TrEMBL record:
Location of the Release factor glutamine methyltransferase N-terminal domain: 13-82
GO molecular function term, any single one: methyltransferase activity
Cited PROSITE patterns: N6_MTASE
Annotated Methyltransferase small domain residues: 111-193
Official protein name in the record: Release factor glutamine methyltransferase
Organism, scientific name: Geotalea uraniireducens
Gene Ontology biological-process entries: methylation
Keyword Transit peptide: no
Length: 289
């Protein structure tokens, strides 16, 4: 796309970009080229197909080139486009937040299956707000709270709550620190869970662009589960549920943590790829004081 005098139609731009992005190691290069061009022309993908022979003007080419260059450096498509769909809702994403993953939707599904009568809900590590907003939409009578250690992530969560017309009580702090004395019917969390030594092996989109504070789960990846499972009983109502997302091969050790802290009705649930993705359990019985 360097020769200025050439005529670059939508068809030609897409063909060139598919090849270029594929060379840079990007799967689904054609589809990504279409998303990037759609954003640059403010035209949906069907529009691209029906206007294949339309030439791009210099401004359109410049805007598109900038986006392609970012993607070629392996910046995630979602940060370039500024959004990601989750549970059928469109979320703003910036480099301050983890990009919502479809695998996480099973956490929302299980929470709604088990605790559809929850009146008070807490999401620890709220990030973009995807889980908290999806739960708030599905449980309009519930009061939903979210905690994150990152002020920048909370700003994104606040905009996503406003975008979807839900009220979420957002607080900055570590785990349960801002919540002394508060109890919830349902606590959910998708905490950082990548073992520290594995961070360097992640694909560049994740390793170089997503916030490390959303990924690093300590030496064995289980650091946050130890803290959350130990502290959750003091913040769960009688019969309340704790549900956490887990990484590959973590369901066993995390279930053991739940059992060691007296949780009942412990279960695991798989994501659509057949990987154990959620561990849950009910608040341990409270001993008389
Ligand atoms: C894996 S991301 C999950 C984000 C979002 N809930 C989702 O599922 O896409 C984990 C989140 O935990 C936050 N976090 C990391 N350490 C924390 C801590 N000590 N207390 C509260 N939140 C923390 C990160 O800032 C990040 O937003």
């Amino acid at each position: 796309m360097a020769i200025n005098r050439e005529i670059w139609t939508i068809r030609k731009v897409l063909e060139w970009t598919r090849g270029y992005l594929a060379e840079k190691g990007i799967d689904n290069a054609r589809l990504e080229a279409e998303w990037l061009l759609s954003a640059s022309l403010a035209m949906d993908r069907v529009g691209l197909y029906v206007n294949f022979d339309q030439p791009l003007n210099q401004d359109e080419l410049a805007a598109f080139r900038g986006r392609v260059a970012r993607r070629a450096r392996r910046e995630p498509l979602q940060y370039i486009l500024g959004s990601q769909e989750f549970c059928g809702l469109d979320f703003e994403v910036t480099p301050a937040v983890l990009i919502p993953r479809h695998d996480t939707e099973v956490l929302v599904t299980e929470a709604l299956r088990l605790a559809s009568d929850a009146k008070t809900v807490l999401d620890i590590g709220v990030g973009s707000g995807c889980i908290a907003v999806a739960l708030a939409k599905a449980l309009p009578a519930a009061t939903v709270s979210g905690i994150d250690a990152s002020a920048a992530a909370l700003a994104v969560a606040r905009r996503n709550a406003a975008r979807h017309g839900v009220d979420i009580a957002l607080s900055e702090g570590s785990l349960f620190a801002p919540l002394a004395g508060q109890r919830f019917d349902l606590i959910v969390s998708n905490p950082p869970y990548i073992p520290s030594a594995d961070l360097a092996t992640l694909q560049p989109e994740v390793r170089e662009f997503e916030p490390v504070t959303a990924l690093d789960g300590g030496p064995d990846g289980l650091e946050f589960y130890r803290l959350i499972v130990a502290e959750a009983p003091a913040h769960l109502a009688v019969g309340g549920w704790l549900l956490v997302e887990v990484g590959i091969d973590q369901a066993g050790p995390v279930t053991a943590l739940f059992a060691a802290h007296g949780f009942g009705d412990c279960f695991t649930a798989k994501d659509p790829n057949g990987i154990e993705r959620v561990v849950g359990g009910r608040a341990p019985e409270r001993r008389p004081q």
